[in-house]
Structures are given as structure tokens and as C-alpha cells.
């Protein structure tokens, strides 16, 4: 789940930011999320999260006209270990052929930025901070050649983009008066429950000058949670209940219609 | 009307699911089949995970066959003896199906295998039904010729099985192994494909076992009822994919659809009904064949590690 190399890289860049900040201190970044808890229960059709906040110069004044920080917001779901299978045509039939496993595929990933990421930062910085779908650190398991790995990673991203679980909207962040920024990120109804992290990056001249993290928890509650627990903890009785329900409904419908 | 499915983990339009249930219920009333062969692929097409679709469709078929089974029981249209043997086979079959399911999942070919099963089973049954129904429909319209109804007789293979029992209601003196094996086969398919197997069972009982027509439909409903119940239990215990909310929505639609279908059925010519059913079965098979040979819906599939 945690990649030591990545942490180290971040640490090093963090140090370099600190040393720079000593000369020209960090801007002040105050992020907030419209809700820190998303409750999945009956009628849940997805949620709209508003990630907003303020950005100020290090001395607490407004960002001067003529210059502006770029804001990138990344909302990331829990990391999952998955196996990805690819279908190939064999003997005239599409069957599952190659497969690869990833140790840390996020269940959800959404990036919102004020400008296209490629214009804000260079590839190296984007890779370090995982800014963008092409820079996701999926941590493949086992040795397969990089080209094939790329193909699988692209396949996964395309699949999840199609189902609304991954997205990258490079004009979703609006900054008003150079101070207030806001971005809207939609969670589809098929989101995985768990802890989500929202990271906000203030970027100036291709360098990440400030970042802040906050958490969003997606939880299942009420009847839905009860059903899920019941089906796992008391599988036998759950099955019996489902059987009883179907027999009862079939029988009562027969009664109801026959009596008319 | 948005409804969140707690096991499938997604929101669906409840009305769409109820209508889908009603459509398959209508079919079950019209043709005396459970309609699972249509529910499962349509649910998958709608975006429900395949395992959840198959597991929940099984309980819908239970609901659809209950009232029919009761009606036939009142009329004495069930051979409990042969039905019991088939149920025993069917329960064993669902167990085998569960093992196969896990084995194929481990091999990473479960979706491909289910697809192939659909094409092969529905394709062959559809062709057999169509070949039988087409001459009947058109001979009825042109002139009343055509071969006379063949004398009821069980398949020679059945006769070669050892150990014979007398099944009075069906008018048979055959080995109980034949209905047992038939039950096993249908049980496996029910577990893997989420179908009740009525469209498979009725012709098999008529033409392979040679049962008397009066008890065929009732006994097949009896068998389907118990085997789909076993399937639901098996799914609840192994795949954990039974979504009661989804099942309840499907049931609301299908039990009412079934009643409407039964009314329609009494006014329609049976051979036309059989031809329509054959067309439907073939259409589903063709749709599956396209995904298998021409272009799959998804090149990549994700499974948890």
C-alpha cells in the first residue's frame, strides 16, 4: 500500500520546499470540504463534494494582481489490490488471456485543476505528486515488461473513467479574486466505502509551494449496512430470508390475483 | 425512483428493475418458464455485477414458480416421486455448480465460461424449439398435414440404465438415475447461469424421459422451485452475492407480470407462443455470441486480489 520510494521522494521535495520557504515563505493554503462524511443509504445516488478554500501570500495579504497560484485538487479513494485481466481473441473466441496484478489501485481518483496539468508542472513533479491519471502509482506485482504494464494501466484507467470512478477535469477549479478557489467533484453511486483523502496543491512556477490534506469518509449506514452485515455474518439465515421472501411474494400474488 | 442496492453497491432506477421483472414474469406466465435466461443478461447489461445478477435472478425465479407450482399441485399435476428424485439431483447439481464456479473464477475464465454456456445452451434449445414450432405454426395455417404426434417413448439411452423404478403418475417404468442426472445437469446450469432451466427441463422431460404431458409442467415447476431455493442458499453461503433489495424489486414485477401472462396464455395458440419463445431464446444467444466472437463488451475485467 505504501511505496517507500515515493515517500522518500516526497520527503526530499518537502525538504527542498522548506529550504526555499526559508527564503520566500510558503503561501497560506486553507482547504475545506463541503462534507467530511458521505453516507450511503437508501436513495443514495452519488454525492457532489465541494472542495474549496483560500490561498494567501505568506504574509497574509491577497495574492497580487498579475500573478496567480495554480490550484490542483486530488480526491483519492482507498487503495485496493486487484487483478486485471485482458481478453484476447483465441480460436475465434474472446477469452481472458494475459493478466497482471496491482497492489495499490485507488478505488476512486478525481483530479480537478485550474489549468491543464501539463501546463502547470513538468512530468517529474506530476509523477512525484501523482498529478493526473497517467501518473497513478499502481505498484504492479511481479516482473512484466514495462510496455505491457503501461498497456494494462491504460486499460484500467480507461475502464474506470468509463464508469465514472476515475476522472480528470482540468478546468474544474475556479479561482475568484485570486483568493478563493473551489472545485466540484462528483462521486458516483458505485463508490467504494472507506477513507478518502483530498489533497490540495498550490503550485507556483512549476513547483508545489504548499499542500494540505483532509479526509472524507464514505460510510454505509442504516438498513443498507444492516443488510450487508447480515449477508456476511449470518449467511445461512440471510439466504433463508431471501428464499422465504421470494416464496411468500410468489404465493401471495397467486392468492391475490386468484381471488379476484 | 432511485433505489440503492446494498450488495451490488450501486443505485439503480427501481422502476426499470420492476419493469424488467414484469417482462420476465409475463414470459413465465405465457410460456411456463422462469424467465431467468432473460433477467440475468438484462441485469448485467444494466450494470449490475454478473455474480449479483445471477444470484438474485435465482430468487426471482423461485417467486415466479411458486404460484404456478401451487396451481398445478391443486390439479394433481405434479409427480412428487420423480420430482423428488430430480430435486435431489438438482441440489447436488448446485453444489457441483458452486465448485465449478470457484474453479473457473480461480482460472480467471468464469465470465467467458458463462458466456459460452449461454450461447451453447440457449442456441441449441432455441433451434430445437424453432424447428419444432415452425412447421406446426405454418401447417396449421396452410393445410392440416404434417406428421402425426409421435408416440410417447423415452429415449433408448434411458432404457439402458440399470435399476428401474415405477413412477405411477408419469406412467413410467425407468431407472431413477435418468431424472437424477437430468436434475444434476439443470442444477449446475442454474448455479452458473442464474436460470431456472424450465425451457430446458420441459422438453427433456417430454422427449428424453417420456413423461406424460399432464404432469410435465407441474413437475418441472416443482423441481425449479426447490432448485432455485437451493441456488439462492448456495449463493448466500459461497458467493455472498444475493441482493435482497434487487430480488424484491424483481419479484414485485415478476409475480404480477406472471398473472397477466397467464391470462394472455389462455387466449393464444400454443405453437405461436412456442415460436415466439424460441425467437427470444435465440436472440439472447445471438447477443451473447456477438460478445464472444465479434467484440466483447469489455476487454479488461477487474477482480479483487
Automatic annotation (TrEMBL), chain A:
N-terminal signal peptide: 1-23
UniProt KW keywords: Membrane, Signal, Transmembrane, Transmembrane helix
Q: Give the highest taxon in the source lineage.
A: Bacteria
Residues that span the membrane, as ranges: 235-258
- Which Pfam families does its entry note? Alph_Pro_TM
Name the record gives this protein? TIGR02186 family protein
Species of provenance:
Croceicoccus esteveae
UniProtKB/TrEMBL annotation, chain B:
Classification via Pfam families: TauE
Q: Where in the cell is it found?
A: Cell membrane; Membrane
Task: State the membrane topology.
Answer: Multi-pass membrane protein
Q: Where are the transmembrane segments?
A: 7-31, 43-70, 82-104, 116-134, 172-195, 201-229, 241-260, 272-290
Membrane recorded as keyword: yes
UniProt cross-references to InterPro entries, sorted A to Z: TM_pro_TauE-like, TSUP/Inactive_protease-like
User: Which residues fall in a coiled-coil region?
Assistant: none
Give the record's keywords alphabetically. Answer: Cell membrane, Membrane, Transmembrane, Transmembrane helix
Say where the protein is mainly found. membrane
Q: Which family does it belong to?
A: Belongs to the 4-toluene sulfonate uptake permease (TSUP) (TC 2.A.102) family.
How is this protein named in the record?
Probable membrane transporter protein
| Species in which this protein is naturally found | Croceicoccus esteveae
Amino acid at each position: 500500500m505504501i511505496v517507500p520510494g515515493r515517500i522518500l521522494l516526497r520527503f526530499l521535495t518537502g525538504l527542498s520546499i522548506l529550504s526555499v520557504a526559508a527564503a520566500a515563505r510558503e503561501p497560506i493554503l486553507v482547504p475545506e470540504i463541503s462534507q467530511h462524511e458521505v453516507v450511503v443509504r437508501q436513495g443514495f445516488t452519488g454525492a457532489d463534494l465541494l472542495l474549496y478554500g483560500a490561498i494567501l501570500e505568506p504574509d497574509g495579504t491577497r495574492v497580487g494582481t498579475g500573478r496567480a497560484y495554480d490550484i490542483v485538487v486530488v480526491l483519492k479513494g482507498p487503495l485496493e489490490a486487484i487483478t486485471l485481466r485482458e481478453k484476447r481473441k483465441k480460436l475465434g473466441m474472446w477469452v481472458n488471456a494475459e493478466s497482471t496484478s496491482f497492489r495499490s489501485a485507488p478505488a476512486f481518483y478525481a483530479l480537478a485543476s485550474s489549468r491543464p496539468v501539463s501546463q502547470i508542472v513538468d512530468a517529474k513533479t506530476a509523477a512525484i505528486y501523482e498529478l493526473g491519471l497517467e501518473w497513478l502509482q499502481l505498484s504492479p506485482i511481479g516482473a512484466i515488461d514495462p510496455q505491457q504494464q503501461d498497456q494494462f494501466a491504460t486499460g484500467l484507467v480507461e475502464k474506470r473513467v468509463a464508469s465514472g470512478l476515475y476522472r480528470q477535469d482540468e478546468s474544474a477549479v475556479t479561482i475568484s479574486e485570486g483568493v478563493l478557489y473551489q472545485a466540484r467533484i462528483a462521486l458516483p453511486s458505485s463508490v467504494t466505502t472507506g477513507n478518502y483523502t483530498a489533497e490540495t496543491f498550490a503550485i507556483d512556477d512549476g513547483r508545489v509551494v504548499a499542500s494540505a490534506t483532509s479526509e472524507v469518509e464514505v460510510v454505509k449506514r442504516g438498513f443498507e449496512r444492516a443488510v450487508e452485515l447480515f449477508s456476511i455474518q449470518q449467511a445461512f439465515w440471510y439466504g433463508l430470508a431471501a428464499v422465504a421472501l421470494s416464496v411468500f411474494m410468489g404465493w401471495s400474488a397467486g392468492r391475490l390475483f386468484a381471488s379476484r | 425512483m432511485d433505489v440503492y442496492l446494498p450488495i451490488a453497491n450501486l443505485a439503480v432506477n427501481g422502476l426499470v428493475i420492476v419493469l424488467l421483472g414484469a417482462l420476465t414474469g409475463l414470459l413465465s406466465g405465457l410460456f411456463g418458464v422462469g424467465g431467468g435466461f432473460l433477467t440475468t443478461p438484462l441485469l448485467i447489461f444494466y450494470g449490475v455485477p454478473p455474480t449479483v445478477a445471477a444470484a438474485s435472478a435465482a430468487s426471482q425465479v423461485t417467486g415466479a414458480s411458486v404460484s404456478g407450482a401451487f396451481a398445478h399441485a391443486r390439479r394433481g399435476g405434479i409427480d412428487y416421486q420423480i420430482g423428488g428424485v430430480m430435486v435431489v439431483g438438482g441440489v447436488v447439481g448446485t453444489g457441483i455448480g458452486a465448485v465449478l464456479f470457484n474453479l473457473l473464477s480461480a482460472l480467471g475464465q468464469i465470465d467467458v465460461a458463462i458466456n459460452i454456456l449461454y450461447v451453447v445452451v440457449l442456441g441449441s434449445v432455441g433451434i430445437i424449439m424453432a424447428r419444432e414450432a415452425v412447421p406446426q405454426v405454418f401447417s396449421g395455417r396452410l393445410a392440416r398435414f404434417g406428421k402425426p404426434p409421435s408416440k410417447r417413448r423415452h429415449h433408448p439411452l434411458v432404457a439402458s440404465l440399470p435399476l428401474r423404478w415405477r413412477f405411477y403418475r408419469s406412467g413410467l417404468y425407468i431407472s431413477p438415475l435418468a431424472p437424477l442426472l437430468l436434475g444434476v445437469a439443470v442444477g449446475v446450469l442454474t448455479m452458473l447461469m442464474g436460470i431456472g432451466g424450465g425451457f430446458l427441463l420441459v422438453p427433456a422431460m417430454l422427449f428424453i424421459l417420456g413423461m406424460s404431458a399432464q404432469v410435465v409442467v407441474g413437475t418441472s415447476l416443482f423441481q425449479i422451485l426447490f432448485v432455485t431455493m437451493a441456488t439462492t442458499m448456495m449463493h448466500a453461503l459461497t458467493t455472498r452475492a444475493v441482493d435482497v433489495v434487487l430480488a424484491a424489486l424483481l419479484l414485485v414485477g415478476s409475480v404480477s407480470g406472471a398473472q397477466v401472462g397467464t391470462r394472455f396464455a389462455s387466449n393464444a395458440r400454443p405453437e405461436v407462443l412456442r415460436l415466439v419463445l424460441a425467437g427470444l431464446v435465440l436472440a439472447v444467444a445471438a447477443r451473447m455470441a456477438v460478445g464472444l466472437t465479434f467484440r466483447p463488451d469489455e476487454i479488461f475485467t477487474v477482480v479483487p486480489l
